[in-house]
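Hello Y.,

Per our agreement to keep a running log of every chain we model this quarter, I'm adding this entry. I've kept the format consistent with earlier entries: sequence first, then predicted structure.
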Amino acid sequence: MTACGLDFGTSNSAIGILRGGAPVLAPVDGEETLIPSAVFFDYETKGRVLFGASAIATYVGQHDGRLMRALKSILGSPLIDEKTALGAKMVALTDVVEIFVRHLKSQAEAFGQQQLTAVVHGRPVRFVDDDDAADAKAQRVLAGIANRVGFSDVSFVYEPIAAAYHYEETAQGEETVLIADIGGGTSDFTVIRIGPERRTRPDRTDDILANDGTRVGGTDFDSLLSLDAVMPMLGLGSYLVEKNLPMPNGLYFELATWSTINFTYTYQNERMLIELVAGAREPEKVARLLKVIRERLGHRIAFTVEDGKIALSEADAAALPLDFIERDLLAPASRGGFDRAIAAKTDRLNRTAAACIRDAGLKPDDIHTIFFTGGSSRVPAVRTAIAKAAPSARIAAGSDFLSVGLGLTREAQRRYG
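Predicted structure for the entry above:
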């Protein structure tokens, strides 16, 4: 049985195989071992489907088609049972996930020159907060997709546990570690004992002291930054002349959320916005929103916001360029404003990390190291909030995007040889 480790992420994905007896990640996007979790259905070239960076570049190049990103997020939402329009066809959103996972598998098989029949699949500790039935359904759907693309044997590992196995490869001594895996759609925590003598144990059950997670991640931070910095430039918070009513905000929230951007592109919304422009106190702002819907610029806004989030991890301020909407249009953003916008989310991360430590039967000072992984672990407010849960712990970090994939592949080696 030939096995792999599959890290299907909200923002990025990776897949690893065993080569020469060692876990390695397969190139899945040209020569890159990390691929944006994006699919583009190109209407200009009938039937062409693009993945990853090529999908995004083609969309930004304004080809006629449909870009879909943050695919994993549908698994923990009501969208799990929904269909979407691809040209003249209605396609289940889970079928789009299947198309993407099939691509990852085929790329890994081409790299390893062998068919893959077993997979250790990463999963968040919680697909859905406080709903065990929905959480179990999300895993069943993902397992069914894995079976349909050709994996006859499917097993799951919590993503922070996989990250712990990768971190353990470099551990010089025994540690009690809080793993903080802050991904695009979820944040997951594990308290685990690791060390050189433990890594060869056939059963690690006793080393894993607690797991916890919450449906908070990078796409939430993107959405909140968009609502704080960009959407006011499109009329959010402005008023209508009649009765001094505020602009309806539902469309702004959909446009600021990766998984619902495509749903905003409707003729009904265009007609509504034409009327709202006519009745707005700041019609130039609402006219920008109308242009975004007409020209389907929502994902371009989302990419700009994501870049802004990254910039604010390094700087105190950033100007988000929106010149694709209007010449020389910039949305000013500050780290302080961003921190305030995401404060409720970072507070939840602090509470979840603290609860994980308590569930392990430990006190904050018992944690030797906090190991951060996942792209959104770079956000300073995120690190600060989680570090407060174990203030005396050493802070460590590895490959933000590859730790989970490598850890899953190592676990595939252990389980399937």
